[in-house]
Amino acid sequence: MKYSALMFLSLTAITGFISCSKENNGQQPDLTPKTLELTAKGAEVIEYGNEFGVELFTKVAIDENKNLMLSPLSASTALTMLLNGCKEDTYNQIKEMLKYPEGMTMSEINEVYRSLVAQLLAVDPKVKLALANAIFYRQGFSVKNPFLNTMNTDFDAEIAGLDFSLPSALTTINKWASDNTNGKIPKVLDEISDDAVMFIMNALYFKGDWSYEFDKALTSDRPFYTSPSVSVNASTMKGEVGSKVTFGSGYRAIELPYGRTNFTMVVIVPEGTLPEFNTSFDTEKWNTITSAFDDQEKFGELTVYMPKFKFSYEKFLNDQLKSLGMVDAFIPDLANLSGISDASIYVDFVKQNTFVEVDEKGTEAAAVTTIGIETTSFPPKPQEFVIDKPFVFAIRERTTNALLFIGQVVNPLNQ
Asked: 285 FRET partner, CA 20 to 30 A, in 10, 206, 244, 251?
């Protein structure tokens, strides 16, 4: 399977649309995709990574009859960062869930990631793609240096210790998400729990113009059928655009390119209902569709109608990831995150916030994956406090902590 088709899923989770028409200067644009250099292991990681992406998407989509978008690339990046700090069964479960080949070492996985990201960011100057990573941890929480060094060198992560008890910590984390998604995802956390010790984060931002833009003058309201008997009027674009089309059992699909065509979006329209299609949608079907596109040399001109859309989405992925095999990491007594810290910690949540907007000019999409890590528990408050030996005492003004008196008692009977 060719790489350009593979990477579409990681960037857009199988939702969206594209187009083609002539550029303003009347010149045909360069529609020759730049070839990315991949090792055999790198190609294998991408192929199996798409399998993880399809499985995650269907797990979520089957349960929700609403607009949604996920970023498998963002999720797998954040989870790979976490994987670097896991050991034993916790490590094996996450590695298997992400479909990394058996026998592939952590350093090899990290190298594939570095190479892939470097090439993706530079492959098409007409497409803006930005990817950022971060580690925010509670001040005073002991994080192992090898883990932080790997996050810095292999993932170019921003690393900061914050006082999680202050409102400024929440502001800093949300501002990082906003800054790295061009303001499209302004908030990922509403609060920081008392047990939270670390957040592992990835932000992904994509902005691409269609290889040929739709003509705004041709956009009009057209019926969009939310069910066979119910329709709504949707602002629908129309254009004679370059595209590739394929048909299969129970679906029809179209692919349209951005920029120099390295990046594309694919639309799959089921013959039946969307929930019915999602129950049968798997990697094999995805590979069939993209292979059919790859077998077509050119984007042929076709009249395309597609609705404009814009939405934001938020989803906690704990249940879906557990069903895919990531179990121990979420269980306080079983999670082995000893590569991060010697403290007893576990994954409290994995959450993704996404944004997408499609119009006549192109597509803007963003995702932030946040992994919240907590201590298993703080020591329980004592049920009694016995003062039965010499002690120090002090009197202070609490709001200023001004110390008024300090002393000690060696023998309370002495006057």
From this structure: 206
